[in-house]
Design brief:
Chain lengths: 114, 113
């Protein structure tokens, strides 16, 4: 299974941008890059995903390297509520058109300081 | 949207017993996956159901089994519980080929003693 590598932890100041990196050097052409975050005592929450092009939504932006071997989740203005474990995940495509399984790594624990 | 609901929220079982965990998918979602999350670890994929058929399975023994019902709700059954089965069990639903990712429930915390 394709794997991702993320830093164990990162710190940010409130209202500053945060760049969370992820390496996925073994990604295959049909794998989507997903990001989820998990707050304590909750299930993971979908943040954003992409395939080749950079993506923006109301929560974050996803910058994907041209060779797709790395990506960066960008939180434009961190708030205290953004403190969570952030998972970079490759969604494996089984080629049948059905959604594939998510392979979670250890994730990055983001601390946001007031 | 009602989201994904799981029951029960907490459960204590004895080693060797059997357990059934339940999940109600988000309205309109036809795919459900189950994950096991040990303390301090990322979730591990158990299996996935699409239209009542299992169409993907992780590295879990056969004593982990599941069902998906016509209304797309789902069950996870674990037989012959072991101490290492103690974990948070997460259910996630989505539409097949969804562009919006999975919606996770808050999980069932299972403790095996």
């Amino acid at each position: 299974d394709a794997k991702t590598t993320q830093p164990n932890s990162m710190e940010s100041n409130e209202e500053e941008p945060v760049h969370l990196p992820c390496n996925h050097s073994t990604i295959s052409g049909t794998d989507y890059i997903h990001w989820y975050r998990q707050l304590p005592s909750q299930g993971p929450e979908y943040v954003i995903h992409g395939l080749t092009s950079n993506v923006n939504n109301r929560m974050a932006s996803l910058a994907i390297a041209e060779d797709r071997k790395s990506s960066t989740l960008i939180l434009h203005r961190a708030t205290l509520r953004d403190a969570a474990v952030y998972y970079c995940i490759l969604r494996l495509s089984d080629g049948s058109g059905n959604t594939g399984k998510l392979i979670f790594g250890q994730g990055t624990t983001l601390q946001v300081k007031p | 949207e009602t989201g994904v609901t799981q029951s029960p929220t907490h459960l204590i079982k004895t080693r060797g017993q059997q357990v059934t965990l339940r999940c109600s998918s988000q309205s309109g979602h036809n795919t459900v996956s189950w994950y096991q999350q040990a303390l301090g670890q990322g979730p591990q994929f158990i299996f996935q159901y699409y239209r009542e058929e299992e169409n993907g399975r992780g590295n879990f023994p056969p004593r982990f089994s599941g069902l998906q019902f016509p209304n797309y709700s789902s069950e996870l059954n674990v037989n012959a519980l072991e101490l290492d089965d103690s974990a948070l069990y997460l259910c996630a639903s989505s539409l097949s080929d969804s562009l919006y990712g999975y919606t996770f429930g808050s999980g069932t915390r299972l403790t095996v003693v």
